[in-house]
From TrEMBL:
<dbReference type="Pfam" id="PF07714">
    <property type="entry name" value="PK_Tyr_Ser-Thr"/>
</dbReference>
<dbReference type="InterPro" id="IPR001245">
    <property type="entry name" value="Ser-Thr/Tyr_kinase_cat_dom"/>
</dbReference>
<keyword id="KW-0256">Endoplasmic reticulum</keyword>
<keyword id="KW-0418">Kinase</keyword>
<keyword id="KW-0808">Transferase</keyword>
<dbReference type="GO" id="GO:0019200">
    <property type="term" value="F:carbohydrate kinase activity"/>
</dbReference>
<dbReference type="GO" id="GO:0005524">
    <property type="term" value="F:ATP binding"/>
</dbReference>
<dbReference type="InterPro" id="IPR039318">
    <property type="entry name" value="POMK"/>
</dbReference>
<dbReference type="InterPro" id="IPR000719">
    <property type="entry name" value="Prot_kinase_dom"/>
</dbReference>
<dbReference type="GO" id="GO:0006493">
    <property type="term" value="P:protein O-linked glycosylation"/>
</dbReference>
<feature type="domain" description="Protein kinase">
    <location>
        <begin position="83"/>
        <end position="353"/>
    </location>
</feature>
<feature type="transmembrane region" description="Helical">
    <location>
        <begin position="20"/>
        <end position="40"/>
    </location>
</feature>
<protein>
    <recommendedName>
        <fullName>Protein O-mannose kinase</fullName>
        <ecNumber>2.7.1.183</ecNumber>
    </recommendedName>
</protein>
<keyword id="KW-0472">Membrane</keyword>
<comment type="function">
    <text>Protein O-mannose kinase that specifically mediates phosphorylation at the 6-position of an O-mannose of the trisaccharide (N-acetylgalactosamine (GalNAc)-beta-1,3-N-acetylglucosamine (GlcNAc)-beta-1,4-mannose) to generate phosphorylated O-mannosyl trisaccharide (N-acetylgalactosamine-beta-1,3-N-acetylglucosamine-beta-1,4-(phosphate-6-)mannose). Phosphorylated O-mannosyl trisaccharide is a carbohydrate structure present in alpha-dystroglycan (DAG1), which is required for binding laminin G-like domain-containing extracellular proteins with high affinity.</text>
</comment>
<keyword id="KW-0735">Signal-anchor</keyword>
<dbReference type="InterPro" id="IPR011009">
    <property type="entry name" value="Kinase-like_dom_sf"/>
</dbReference>
């Protein structure tokens, strides 16, 4: 900013503007910048905050809206006696999810729906425990022997219904490029968190098409994104040369990354043992498609798309090693939000400063 101010000063001096006016102008510029930064700080809630939310409790405890204290995760016994199932609100390959009630709170009870997928269910629970943070749905309890997990309930449901929600009269005011871009930043921040998690680099594998991706994330009532389904989250360890595969079956289509496709052509039948493994850059490949969904088609979405063109082109590099890290995508998104927001708030200031 000092450089910018020096430049403005020099320019103004060159044009021989009276010193009083100069001082006033500089003050005005400073004030505008100050107000803008204050505003941006309020707006980009997810920017620059530590991973651990202050409303979180120590490991093994949780806090819910109306409750003041941290309670320990509910055990099998507490779940069986204190939780009442109300209705089924979702079903995936692994779990059946019920809106339920616990001490006058709405909670979400997930139960194993396919007994062949016990491993996945337990892996998801393990991840949920280990990754509790502002990016992950809050764990309230679990019962391993009955294959049930209790989490915070989010009435807006998964990201699949984002467009329907934003069309409701009550949320219409939130259907702006700015809000939508902030959701995309939330999403990329979650990918960044998973790629740099306390457990190491985790790949979001349950993501073979856009709808699948969207169904693994929840939309909170204050319009933020949380990751909910952590059942398919293998660990990459580059220093140990350990890569991953998302499942044992052949993947097809353009949504998955090219390195996830069978590389030996149609003449050679698919064989899992011959399929080469890959790393977390498959998540980066998918970011532009998910971001496009978030941006939608409102006034200003296309301008955001235009500004994200280069970073998205980089995400779609065929060679995974050439794709940017989640950190780079996240930084670019945040920079663009600041830039575009400044443009929208004070048209022409970019040229002036
Ligand atoms: N805490 C929750 N609040 C509201 N809806 C939820 C919650 N958890 C899951 N759901 C709904 O249930 C669906 C399936 O949940 P998910 O955990 O992805 O199951 P699966 O492992 O079988 O894919 C989600 O896409 C979402 O619509
Ligand atoms: C990765 O592998 C190395 C070497 O085997 C090991 O020391 C390290 O703990 C592993 N890291 C993670 C995150 O598992
Ligand atoms: Mg799911």
């Amino acid at each position: 900013m000092d450089k910018k101010l020096q430049y403005v000063k020099k320019e103004l001096l060159r044009r021989e503007i009276p010193p009083v006016l100069l001082v006033l102008l500089l003050l005005a510029v400073l004030l505008l910048n100050f107000l803008l930064y204050m505003h941006l700080n309020n707006v980009s809630i997810t920017t620059g905050q530590p991973d651990v939310d202050s409303s979180l409790c120590p490991f093994g405890y949780f806090r819910l809206g109306s409750l003041k204290n941290c309670s320990p995760w509910l055990s099998c016994e507490a779940i069986n006696t204190e939780v009442r199932k109300l209705k089924c609100v979702g079903e995936g390959a692994v779990k059946k999810v019920f809106l339920s009630e616990w001490k006058e709170n709405k909670v979400s009870l997930s139960q194993l729906a396919n007994s062949e997928l016990k491993e996945d269910f337990l892996h998801g629970l393990k991840m949920l425990k280990a990754l509790q943070s502002k990016y992950v749905v809050r764990l309230l309890g679990y019962c391993e022997k009955q294959f049930t997990v209790l989490t915070q309930y989010h009435p807006l449901g998964s990201l699949k219904s984002l467009n329907e929600m934003l069309d409701l009269p009550r949320y219409k005011g939130l259907n702006t490029w700015h809000r939508r871009f902030m959701l995309a930043i939330d999403y990329v921040s979650i990918i960044h968190y998973l790629h740099n998690s306390p457990l190491g680099t985790l790949v979001m594998c349950d993501s073979n098409d856009l709808d699948k991706v969207l169904s693994q994330y929840l939309l909170t009532s204050d319009f933020h994104v949380l990751v909910n389904d952590l059942d398919a989250l293998p660990l990459v360890n580059k220093s140990a040369g350990r890569l991953v595969k998302c499942g044992h079956r052949e993947l097809q289509g353009e949504f998955v990354a090219p390195e996830q496709l069978w590389p030996y052509g149609e003449e050679v039948p698919f064989e899992d043992d011959l399929m080469p493994p890959y790393d977390e850059k498959t998540d980066i490949w998918k970011i532009p498609d998910v971001a496009n969904f978030f941006l939608g088609h409102v006034e200003g979405s296309d301008i955001v798309r235009f500004h994200l063109f280069d970073i998205h082109a980089a995400c779609k590099k065929k060679n995974p090693a050439e794709r940017p890290s989640a950190q780079m995508v996240m930084d670019t998104y945040r920079k663009m939000l600041t830039l575009l927001f400044r443009e929208a708030a004070m048209p022409g200031t970019r040229e002036m400063l």
